[in-house]
Amino acid sequence: MRNFKAPKHIREHRVAGKALYRALLTLCPRLPIPDDGRASLRRLIRMTFWSNRHLQGTARLKYAFDAGHEAHSILQASASGAEEAATSRILALLATLPPPSPPKTQQTRKPASPQDPTSKASRPRRLPAPYPNATPVLARPHLQISGRRHVPTLVSTNSLPFLRFKKPQSPFLTRIIRNKLEQKEKRYHLLYDLQAQLALAKSEDVWDEVVPLGYEGVRRGQNTWAWHVREAICLVEDRLEEEEERRKRLARRLQWIVELEEVLAQKESVSRRIQGLEQAVRRSEGRKMA
């Protein structure tokens, strides 16, 4: 089954339509009619082409192009002054058109009423800051907490580990993850560009070998084109390897935090059960003494 293409996506159709559109608009200023009539005719041509931009079907397209070519013949005959009947036909068509709508007047905006300084809309937007109202993640686990302990989940996004405590995610954490991923992407793009430039640098070095040694500006030894590109590639690769090692160390540290949090959560759960049993025993003994 052949893939269907809309006529507007076919190059030949677009070229033919644009040529007819420009030809019709070009003839409008040469018509022996009033200026407002020329403006109305240009507006009619634009609206007709705009309404038929999604037209499909061989019969419909043929009818539309035939009508456009007939209109071009009438406009050309009127512009040349050879046939007065063509001009009369254009004036009769313009008489049937509705009058153009008046231009919209710009409405003056009312001055905004002063807002209450204590309202939420008047307050400046608070940007996420490092560790908002919280301690650093690597300072966990906390031995003493108020309430029930929630064990975090170790999550990885594009090899970037982090701890997820709750949903929705902190905007500060989202910004850090996005910045780190963008930095990693930029470094990989730079590495690909340098690898592509290495072949060009080698070609430059071959050209320098062809040039005589006494020629001014020739590079020799370590001061070659390829040597500088290789140095830049090694530098970017070192940065990527260092970042990868840093992420591995961070993942091991976060995994250690999760394991300790699980151990503390189990201990606190056992402690709560023991306290509950002790309270139940004390209540039962109190009822017996009563």
- Please compute the radius of gyration using only Cα atoms: 39 Å
- Shape descriptor reads elongated
Structural class, by secondary structure, is mainly alpha
Low-confidence stretches: none
DSSP summary, beta strand count: 2
Individual helix count: 6
Mean pLDDT, nearest integer?
81
Q: What is the CA–CA distance across the termini?
A: 91 Å
The proportion of strand residues reads under 5%
Fraction of residues in helix: 55-70%
Largest sheet: 2 strands, antiparallel
Sequence-ordered SSE layout with sheet pairings:
Layout (H helix, E strand, L loop, with lengths): L10 H17 L7 H17 L6 H23 L3 H13 L56 E5 L2 E5 L6 H40 L14 H65 L1
Antiparallel strand pairs: 1-2
Helix pairs in contact: 1-3, 3-4, 5-6
Briefly, what is this?
This protein has 290 residues and is mostly helical. The protein is built from 6 helices and 2 strands, in the order ααααββαα. α1 packs parallel to α3 (58-80), α3 crosses α4 (84-96) and α5 (171-210) runs antiparallel to α6 (225-289).
Fill in the keyword field for this structure.
290 residues; two-stranded antiparallel ribbon; single chain
Overview of the molecule:
This protein is mainly alpha-helical and 290 residues long. The protein is built from six helices and two strands, in the order H-H-H-H-E-E-H-H. The protein has helices at residues 11-27, 35-51, 58-80, 84-96, 171-210, 225-289, and strands at residues 153-157, 160-164. Strands 1-2 form a two-stranded antiparallel ribbon. Helix 3 (58-80) packs across helix 4 and helix 5 packs antiparallel against helix 6 (225-289).
